[in-house]
């Protein structure tokens, strides 16, 4: 029945995208996702998530800062071993992060040595800031100290130059230690002066950076500004590998990611379930499914049918439930209750499901409640006709009407008992229990500082 409705791709098929074979899915669930307040993974959990990301067809995973804690080193060691024993794809790119200072780089290199990884098989992401606000206010004291300055400098141009010099130095330093893949990150790039951003990238690339990740740190991009920045950067660096990394503070991360892809940023950073700082990141399922269904861009060897399972795994490990109406992977996306919808769905799923359920390897389900119509009840009677007959039950119109009425009454009584409200209150309590608040940290201070 595809000829009975207008396919959305009619309006999107003239958009330009990179060749799907060159598109890179770059996952940051284990790094930015773990920066979600209250989230902490064990090394075993990180390994299991990595295995499933590998099975799903992700190309790059960001595992964060491996030198900051023993558990991070254990996770990296497991992942490296998994690549070598075949549990994780050999072509899955592993990325680690380090700040733009030699101590961080040295600590990362030592960690790689301890876990048996060569610098040449790991991508290093080193980063700085790009906006004048970040460079002067946040990064300023570090730059002043680096340059041996003891007094505050007002001129922002001084900070810009000092920042470029720092990145030239660190990229050269990383390259000199046998690292083949160096990714440059520039925090708050989406609020930076484009001319300065180009200079910062150019000077870093000249010293060894060979991929750039364009971050919308505050989630402030719109599709219009995304197009502007992405187009300018691609024009300035036509051969440089680029990926986007967009936050979701205004619920625009997914569409901004697609716009950046249209403008030639062939990679995109996402997280499972969109978890991450504040409002999170562009969600893997949102971007991948939207590209496939609405734009006709199918990522080669990507397992769309793994997305639901992957989502539930990360939901379980993170303790961050996905909303029931979350696109593609939410519990209710392929669920129907209202009489009008169920009536249509019983005839053809395309009437109310824009995403083919077989794409995601899930099944349509029907929920019975106060909005249920007779069509669904009659379908149930047909489905279980033999079982009902075996119990010597006479099926009549009156029986069907009574069943429908009982369904509605039962659901209304559940509302009266506030079942949903109690569940939500329990969930909110659990969220507070997986976070450390300042009072708990004060208790640590008091216990460690009592002189005993």
Summarize, please.
The protein is an alpha/beta fold and 452 residues long. The chain has helices at residues 43-56, 70-85, 102-114, 132-138, 140-146, 156-176, 194-205, 223-236, 253-262, 284-295, 307-318, 339-347, 374-383, 385-390, 397-416, 419-433, 438-448; strands at residues 24-27, 60-62, 93-99, 123-129, 181-187, 211-216, 241-246, 267-270, 335-336, 365-366.
Care to describe what's here?
By secondary structure, the protein is an alpha/beta fold. The protein folds into two domains: about 1-320, TIM Barrel (Alpha-Beta Barrel); about 335-430, no CATH class. Helix content is about 45%, strand content about 10%. It has 17 helices and ten strands. It has an eight-stranded parallel beta barrel with strand order 1-2-3-4-5-6-7-8, surrounded by five helices. It has a two-stranded parallel sheet with strand order 9-10. Strand 9 (about 335), helix 12 and strand 10 (about 365) form a beta-alpha-beta unit. Helix 5 packs across helix 6 and helix 6 (about 155-175) packs parallel to helix 7 (about 195-205). The longest helix is centred in the middle third of the chain and has 21 residues, at about 155-175. It is elongated, with a radius of gyration of 26 Å. The chain starts with about 25 loop residues before the first strand and ends with a helix.
Tell me the radius of gyration.
26 Å
Give the name of the CATH architecture of the largest domain: Alpha-Beta Barrel
Number of strands: 10
- What structural category characterises the helix and strand content? alpha/beta
**Kindly, what is the distance between the CA atoms of the first and last residues, rounded to a whole number of angstroms?**
77 Å
CATH topology of the largest domain: TIM Barrel
Compute the number of structural domains.
Answer: 2
**CATH homologous group name of the largest domain:** Aldolase class I
β-strand amount: 5-15%
Number of helical stretches of at least 4 residues = 17
Instruction: Quote the average pLDDT.
Output: 94
Give the low-confidence spans. Answer: none
Q: Strand sequence of the main sheet, in spatial order? A: 1-2-3-4-5-6-7-8
Shape from CA axes?
A: elongated
Estimate percent helicity.
40-55%
Name of the CATH first level of the largest domain: Alpha Beta
**Main sheet attributes: strand count, strand direction, barrel closure:** 8 strands, parallel, barrel
Order of helices and strands: EHEHEHEHHHEHEHEHEHHEHEHHHHH
